[in-house]
Amino acid sequence: MIQVTKHRYIVTNNEILGGEPIIQGTRTPVRAIVELWRLGIQPEEIPTHLPHLTLAQVFDALSYYSDHQDEINAYIERNRIPDDLLDPLVKD
Questions:
Q1: Neighbours of 17 (CB within 10 A)
Q2: Which of 10, 11, 74, 83 has its CA 20 to 30 A from that of 18?
Q3: What does the longest C-alpha to C-alpha distance in the chain come to?
Q4: Which domains does the chain have, with CATH numbers?
Q5: Which letter does DSSP use for residue 29 in this model?
Q6: Could you tell me the pTM of the whole model?
């Protein structure tokens, strides 16, 4: 079941990513936008990396993150690949 949030473009749906917050109408999780932003990509540039998103959706995702940092950080950590499983060529 889709549940709306106080953020216009952010919803949860138990059938998509186990209810993780996503951009409405997509399967793109808020954490994906936050991770790009943490890599130093400016919000205005994120739609060039995720062209199915609008700038308004990106800013709403970052606003959602600002209001729910612990929740999104937990999703980021849960989906992190442990260093010992990374190919040595992928590591820094």
A1: 16
A2: 83
A3: 42
A4: 2-82 (1.10.10.10)
A5: B
A6: 0.85
Average pLDDT over residues 82-92: 69
Under the phi-then-psi rule, with left for phi > 0, alpha for psi from -120 to 50, and beta for the rest, what region is 25?
A: left
Helices 30-38 and 55-67: angle between axes, nearest 10 degrees: 90
| Residues 34-75: tens digit of each pLDDT | 999 999 999 999 999 999 999 999 999 999 999 999 999 999
Query: What residue has token string 């991770």?
Result: 35
Tokens representing residue 23 in the block: 């951009």
Amino acid at 7: H
Distance CA 76, CA 74 (A): 5
- Say if CB 61 and CB 10 are below 8 A apart: yes
Residue position matching structure tokens 């936008």: 33
